[in-house]
Design brief:
Strand content: 5-15%
Radius of gyration: 28 Å
Number of helices: 29
Structural class: alpha/beta
Number of strands: 22
Strand order of the largest sheet: 5-6-4-7-8-3-9
Amino acid sequence: MEPGEIYSHPGKRLEDHLSRTRTIASKMAAWYRVNLERGQEEALLLHDLAKSHPAFQRKLAGERLRFSHAEPSAVLVLARTGDLICAEAVRRHHTSLENLADIKRLWGNRAYAEWQKTIKRLPWWPGATRVAGELGIDVSRWADLLPDEEEWEDIIFNSVELYGPDTADALQDWLKLRLLTSLLVAADRLDAIGGDITCSPLVIDQKKTQNYIASLKDKKLARWRSQIRQKVVTAASQIMKAPGIYTLTLPTGAGKTITGLQVAMEAAGQLEATGILYVLPFVSLVEQNTAVAREVFPYVMEDHHLNFPDGVTNEEDSEADEANRRFIAFYRYWQEPVIVTTLAKMWEVLYSPRVNEAMSFHRLSRAIVILDEPQSIPATCWQGFGKTLELLTERLGTTFILMTATQPGIAAGQELALEPVSFPIIRHEFHWLNRQMTIEDAADFLVGRGALNNDCLIVLNTREAALRMYLAMKARGAEPLFLSAWVAPVHREKIFRQLKEREQRGEPRCLVATQVIEAGMDLDFAMVFRDLGPMDSIVQVAGRCNRNAGPRRGQIYLAELVDAKGRNFASHIYDPTLLNLTRQVLREYFDEKDCREIIQDYFKAVQGAVNDSDLWRNITEGRWGEYIDLYPDKRPDEVMLVIKGAVEGLGERVSQLLATICASLAPEDKGDFREIEKRRQAFREITRHAISVPKKHLDEWYQREGGMIYGGDETAIRELFPDLWLVQGEGIGRIYRRETGFVPVKIAALMEGGKDVGY
């Protein structure tokens, strides 16, 4: 660092960072057609000005001290613009957004003299003249931007005390705050690592799409799917003349993925969209649908927490290109014109107060958003989510396509399938047994229905129940495969490949699974058994029964499974209200054509019975720092269990990744940006070899093993850090098994021929 210069980051002059951050954010805003006011432009330029404070400069030089630069920078923004929203975007651009009540409290209670004292210590250096010139002001010290105390109090009074609870104002300011914050945070982080904005255009190539469709394997229903697709795309070209909310209701197996992409392409062309966002409920679906999207679009980003870059660089790439790659990988910023992502990530972008999670919010402006399987959103959030979509459509020109076989009542949208679509034949029929069964009873029932000589899918509600069913079917002569969240992703992929290979060879298959099988997996079974669950989940599982319309109707059996004490497994994970409503709409017998009416009755009943969450009220009442999790029932006691050695040849790689991650968990080791980036990438990669397990199950195994060492220094199971455990060596094949994933102690005892200690 040169004497007399002021820096924002090591080696980066502050005036350069301020100017480039505004330039990058302005380019982003222009590309995504977000209008920036003069005050917002000035906020972008002033966002880090207080880094010029001597204390921050000493901190950059290596002194161990704390100095918050965001608040004094926000003071200058408020003094300059009189805009509380602009000031808040700057004040919170390194942390999280706050509730309006907290915002009022801070600005209303902080003494003018305290702010003035800090601002007076900001130096005037040669680069400051350049910043002042970009602001269009003629001053020689930053304190000149502050008004006198009486004028400052007037600004605070007008900004805070007169800030009323009007809903329209709250909506406008929430939207303005998230837009400006997302632009500022993205631009600030991008420039900090030496990157630059690169926006690729959305390329619509109908010929490429048609070539891809023509390359698909000819199946029995290919012509029917093609006809449906053509009708829907034609209707979309006539209907989607303006941004809005649209629905696309097609039965499972009708080819929704390519149909939805074609509809989005049609709308994007007509509405001059800035991009297409394809949002799916599960990571496995993101991976599948990204592959399809890459067949028809040149620039596609696959975004989910398991995705990690391959590290490949090109010699001709500039430092900015490499920095951009690091930025996208580190922050999961939605860079490409076509994004395939998860509903969980979309939820964070919409609602999370954490600014790093919300930095892609501006990408929604003038975009086409496909929401695939939106019924996976908790029913308590339907109304608030629907109102959010309406707001974004009205204010940002976003177009939403809600695409599913079971359309929930999230928002009133125009249907693109002008007539109800049904398969040309009835593929399957349902049998509601309307009685309670133990797992052993259910296994006997299935064997009696020919499960040993037929393709059979068995779906249960809990991982332990699924493991018990797996053992019960094996005891009756079946050779089942197994899928649950306790199976590491690398093994789930292998099991799915095995299922597809057996299906293609026409071999009988038996699969025992949890709800991980419900949506999107292109598998076909002649018989399905499902434990009681919400009606929409039942219909989703039905999509795996006679999926490709074979000559014989598939058979779907529904029952309520209970443990040895008569407690039903469904209540462990589902709201009792949803289960009761499902019981009310189920019929003893019905077939595929009846599903539309039944599911409509179910969703109507759900809307009348479920209390709305605070999702929308948080926005309208200024509780912008609150966050309602998309999956509120995530177990707080679960920890990550890494499996080392379960995949041949990758044990050493897992060790390397663990070493990188454990270094980042050491409290004394903070590291620079590149080190943090390396650790985040290691974490993403290792999650393919990891699962989440209740800590009590791991404690039971540790106590059983007694910390014994098997061969060398490899303990079977041990805790590396809080929330991070490792199973290895002799633990593979006992604690974690390649065929079933993690096995709790009590079920392992069953597998080893011991006594059942109960559910």
